[in-house]
Structure formats: C-alpha cells, structure tokens
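ingest -> validate -> predict -> emit
validate: passed (alphabet ok, no gaps, 273 aa)
predict: started
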Amino acid sequence: MPERSGAQLLRRARQKQQRRAEAEPPDTARTPPSKKPCSGPPAILGPQRSVYFLSPPEPPARLGPEFFDQPAVALAQAFLGQVLVRQLADHTELRGRIVETEAYLGPEDEAAHSRGGRQTARNRGMFMKPGTLYVYIIYGMYFCMNVSSQGDGACVLLRALEPLEGLESMRQLRSSLGKGTSGRALKDRQLCSGPSKLCQALAIDKSFDQRDLATDRAVWMEPGPPGPEPAIVAAARVGIGQAGEWTHKALRFYVRGSPFVSVVDRAAERVQP
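emit:
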C-alpha cells in the first residue's frame, strides 16, 4: 500500500544515514571534551546552598527601642523620613514615609495632655517607655496617634505621611471611615495629610493605645531609604489655643517642599535657610 511503501522508504533512508554517520571519523572540533571520571563520591550540595534549606528573605529592619529613647524634639525631627508600617488582618502591609510631626514636651508644655504632670487613664501612654503609642479620640469620632519619648508625659504626634505602599487600601479605608469622602476618589497627597486622616488610612483606632512600636506585630517603623537628610522646617503647632507662649513655639517639624504635609507655614520657611 502507498502508506506502507512510504514508511519503508523513510525507514531505509534513516538507516542509510545512520550507517554513513558511523563510518565517518568523529568531528573533534564539535565533540565536547569528555569529562574525567570522578575519583571519589559525588559532591553533595551542603544545606547552606540547597534551595530546600535557604532561609526566607529577612524583612526590613524595624526601628528598635533605642531609636525611640530620645527627647521629644529630637525624636520628632528623627521621625522625618522614617517609614511607618501597618499590617492589616489579611496581611496587607501599608507603608508611608513620615513628613510631619509635632513635639509635646510634658508637664511644662501647656499644650500637652500631660500639662502640670497630670496622669489619667486616657493619657497613660505618654508616661510609658519611649516607643509606646498614645492614641486618643477627638470630636468623638477621629483618632490621633502619638509616640512617647524620653521624659514623663512627653510624646510626638504623627501628623502626615507620604503614602508608599498599599495606596488603594488606604483609599478604601479613608472612604469607609471618613466623613464626606464617599463618592470621590482621594488624591495620593490627601490620603494621610493630617493626624486623623493618617489614622483612617492605616486603620488605627483606640485599640492601638499603649502598644509598643518596637515589638508590635501590626504596626511598627522601619528606617527610611538611604539618601540626603531632608530639609526640615520648624513652625508653630496646629490648632493650639489658650496655651500662652506655648501656642507659638516652633515645635512642629515638616519636610520642606513635600506635597504631603498637612499645613505649610510660608512665614516660617522665609526666615529659615
């Protein structure tokens, strides 16, 4: 049959080609050099090199207790450029670079919740070890997040972040928790440009009060990316009234030129290099 004849011809052609190849001398230029026989047992890949024993990649280093153990003014400035991280229940991580802070110096500061040295159940976090969160509620619905520093009753308010990671989750949280934000998409610079906005975007509430930033699994800080030190503007704190001379003290610090800052003080910037 034609199919069988064709198959036989093809088989004969392959056999002839194979006999010709066996008769020709080997092409040493194309033949790779043979490997020398191994004189010992086959090499075993050590555990430190096996893909089965590789350690998982280390997470970015978090800032430890020694970082937070600074006076309030120094800590408020040191926070600028560092990264605040919030891990949600579904393990989504939200990150933002700190661009604005305020320092509260403790009992002597007439604008501090600890003025006069008073301690209450509400402000207990201000008197705990440096790095402890002090979260309080304002207007009955909004939260503000502070970090305790050196000195009894002293702390730093986190006022604004530059969102870095998890922006869509931040947008959803702001829309669901914020008043008057439903129905319009928030711009990136609007997500964390204020202490209460920051807490909404990161889902920070009163349950975070008195947590330790150095050890907590849901919120922590990481060193900012390497680069030049940010230019810092010192200005009066926002919303301080009836605090005498403390109303105008330059205890708010922000990154000059950042579009993510909540309030820019042009007068302060003109008199500072």
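The two ends are 98 Å apart (CA to CA).
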